[in-house]
Amino acid sequence: MKTIELLERALPEGRVRRDDETRRAHAHDYWAFEAIHDVAGNPTEAPPAVVFPESTSEVQTILEIADAERTAIVPYGLGSGVCGGVRPGGEALVVDLSRMAALIELNAEACTARVQAGLNGAECERLLGERGFTLGHFPQSIAVSTVGGWVATRASGQLSTRYGNIEDLVLALEVVLPGGRVVRTFPAPRASTGPDLREILLGSEGTLGIVTEIDLKLSPKPAVEIGFAARLRSWEDGLEITRQLLQAGWRPAVLRLYDGIEAQRNFNDWFPEREPLLLVATEGSEAMRGALELELAAARDACTSRGGEDLGAAPLRHWLGNRNHVPSWEDLLGNGLVVDTIEVSATWDRIGPLYGKVAQAIAAVPGVLVASGHTSHGYTTGVNIYFTFVGSAKEEQEQERIYSGAWAAAMEATIACGGSIAHHHGIGRVRRDYLPRELGDTGVEVLRSVKKALDPNGIMNPGVQI
Q: Where in the chain is the domain with CATH 3.30.43.10?
């Protein structure tokens, strides 16, 4: 490929890799659909080369050459996406940002930091913690994802109720557009300077350009961390408790509701029977201790007033210690289990029916053994639900049928109930066909117009989103 040769001449030695091991490692992200084929011995075609830039100027060079040669480019962080946002095939080149992983600047007075997009999430939090700060963004994938990946997918962390989602934590962005142009948004606390360019780029999944630097809003590292768990009488009680607490103005860092199936699966020491569980945790400075204790008391009162049982902090500690430990797709598929999670959201008036109808629709797919759900990100207007399904099949074709059937059932039922098809994992390929159902034809046309303006030759991550 001519583009590879041009890049090898234009970039320092070692930036372009063509070896089989590197190419295969970048053939796709952590999409379960791809794992089905990998385990069956039918892996996705690897890209012809992977490029490892070490500066914004090198990213400019890559996109200038690729645009001129009409060569497709797929940005890559650490490959932890779960919706098929990375699938270069045999034609597109992958641009791996992992060598751009520095904490560039930390401004203690302004509570901000500037980082490169390839910085590992856990490493970012470690570096901030050493200086007395936290980003407050803790996705389950924190150890295997990058800050740039969070921006690209419009991610949420497990403590989002207190700290906000990634869009609330991004102050400014530097993004390289096709052709090598650079756009940098201004790092102001707020501005009224026309449409917010950050919002155009957030969640764009590499379809408009490559994020290279991010200015982040920080919080002081918490000195007080307290919480409890409650066994509830019903899932409906848990939703109502969550709604009332949030609409009263409380913002606990964790307000996480499990249905009976998931409570028993994840907390079997406390739940021999299928009963809902609510986890509540709050955190902040020592000066806020009184307010934090009041917040926790309000949550405890809301639970006990509906007949809930206070289980103390032990289940919460169990979750904190194990929250990011999950079996690999390979282990699950090797045991004949087809498993995935699907996160959606809805307003409070719609979330109750949505939970029942989506779970029922998934469970009705032949081969699905169980469908369950939990909430993890709450707002005054509504909440998300994370659905998990488990199916049983040994053969590749049957595993693919169960997987695709469960996703289709979830998407159709969510749309029918007036929910949003994606809360924080993005669109990728798995949700792409359902996006027009949520945005409408005009909305999709607006996105396509933006794409055409910023990427007129269509080189950025083709096949994703629209």
A: 2-96
Tell me the C-alpha distance between 317 and 314, whole Å: 5
Is there a contact between 254 and 296 (Cβ–Cβ < 8 Å)?
no
| CATH code matching the domain that covers 224-322, chosen among 3.40.390.10, 3.40.50.300, 3.30.70.3450, 3.90.79.10 | 3.30.70.3450
Residue 466 scores a pLDDT above 90: no
Sequence-ordered alpha helix ranges (H) in 234-288: 235-247, 260-266
Q: Map tokens 């700060």 to a residue.
A: 133
Closest CA to 143 of 173, 121, 165, 160: 121
Report the relative pairing of strands 73-76 and 93-96 from DSSP bridges. parallel
Phi, psi of 392 (to 5 degrees): -125, 120
User: Is the distance from CB of 59 to CB of 1 less than 8 angstroms?
Assistant: no
Task: Estimate to the nearest angstrom the gap between the alpha carbon of 214 and the chain centroid.
Answer: 17
Contact status, residue 166 vs residue 214, Cβ threshold 8 Å: no
Q: How do residues 379-435 score in pLDDT, each as one tens digit? A: 999 999 999 999 999 999 999 999 999 999 999 999 999 999 999 999 999 999 999
Closest CA to 152 of 103, 85, 64, 53: 85
Place of tokens 């029918």: 416
Q: Select from 3.30.465.10, 3.30.70.20, 3.30.420.10, 3.40.190.10 the CATH code of 103-220.
A: 3.30.465.10
Under 8 Å between Cβ of 280 and 296:
yes
Q: What is the CATH number that goes with domain 2-96?
A: 3.30.43.10
Q: What is the length of the chain?
A: 466
User: Closest by alpha carbon to 120, among 101, 99, 97?
Assistant: 101
Residues of the chain with CATH 3.30.465.10: 103-220
What is the rounded average pLDDT of the residues 369-385? Answer: 98
The tokens 């993004």 sit on which residue?
A: 175
In the 8-state DSSP scheme, what is residue 378? B
Tell me yes or no: is domain 329-429 CATH 3.30.300.330: yes
Cβ–Cβ < 8 Å for 373, 351: no
Statement: the pTM of the whole predicted model exceeds 0.90 = yes
Listed in sequence order, the residues at least 6 apart from 132 whose beta carbon sits closer than 8 Å to its beta carbon are 108, 220, 221
Q: Are 379 and 389 in contact (CB under 8 A)?
A: no
